[in-house]
């Protein structure tokens, strides 16, 4: 078990430092490590863990806690959580100290404007990985795209949209199976 715990820490601690723009930016890298490199989960299991982590209150990075739990139980959940939050906590403390001592500095503005496209690209990579993992094929992907568009254009309750999407998917699958 200690080897698995060390592996969990070795995977998630470096990813912690790469979370530019929030935990959702590293989902693609988490998926690659967990599914493709270490084979701790299948794509479907990863997608389920991601869905659960997004529905639970708290940061999206709690996905890592679920992965740790799945891989090594309670010790795995603790190690994975410390690995994903620990390094960033210490780094942000140091950056905040520098930031507050140099308000409005040119390097701050350059850093902010340079990191925006990096964060956007990482989020797009996460979206790609999650869409590729959907088991429902083109139909599930189309529903996901349509749901995203509706969510962005309206103030509809996401639970209502989730229910409607599931209903549409089930009805379409029944029709196509006939």
Biggest sheet layout? none
The helix/strand class is mainly alpha
The span between the termini is: 49 Å
The gyration radius over C-alpha positions equals 19 Å
3D shape: globular
> How many DSSP-defined strands?
0
Low-confidence stretches: none
What's the rounded overall pLDDT mean? 87
Element-by-element helix/strand order: HHHHHHH
Tell me the fraction of residues in β-strands, as a range: under 5%
Number of domains: 2
Counting DSSP H or I runs of 4 or more residues, the number of helices is 7
Residue share in helix:
over 70%
Description:
With 178 residues, the chain is an all-alpha fold. It has two domains: 2-119, no CATH class; 134-178. The chain is built from seven helices and no strands. The chain has helices at 2-17, 27-37, 43-55, 63-101, 106-133, 137-153, 158-177. It is globular. It starts with a helix and ends with a helix. The mean pLDDT is 87.
């Amino acid at each position: 078990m200690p080897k698995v715990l060390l592996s969990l820490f070795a995977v998630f601690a470096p990813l912690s430092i790469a979370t530019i723009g929030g935990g959702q930016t590293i989902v693609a890298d988490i998926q690659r490590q967990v599914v493709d490199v270490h084979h701790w989960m299948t794509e479907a299991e990863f997608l389920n863990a991601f869905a659960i982590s997004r529905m639970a209150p708290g940061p999206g990075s709690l996905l890592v806690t679920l992965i740790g739990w799945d891989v090594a139980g309670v010790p795995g959940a603790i190690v994975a959580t410390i690995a994903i939050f620990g390094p960033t906590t210490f780094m942000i403390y140091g950056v905040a100290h520098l930031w507050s001592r140099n308000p409005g500095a040119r390097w701050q503005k350059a850093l902010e404007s340079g990191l925006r496209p990096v964060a956007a690209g990482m989020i797009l990579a996460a979206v790609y990985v999650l869409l590729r993992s959907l088991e429902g094929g083109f139909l599930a992907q189309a529903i996901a795209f349509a749901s995203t568009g509706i969510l962005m254009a309206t103030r509809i309750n996401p639970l209502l949209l989730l229910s409607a999407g599931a209903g549409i998917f089930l009805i379409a699958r029944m029709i196509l199976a006939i």
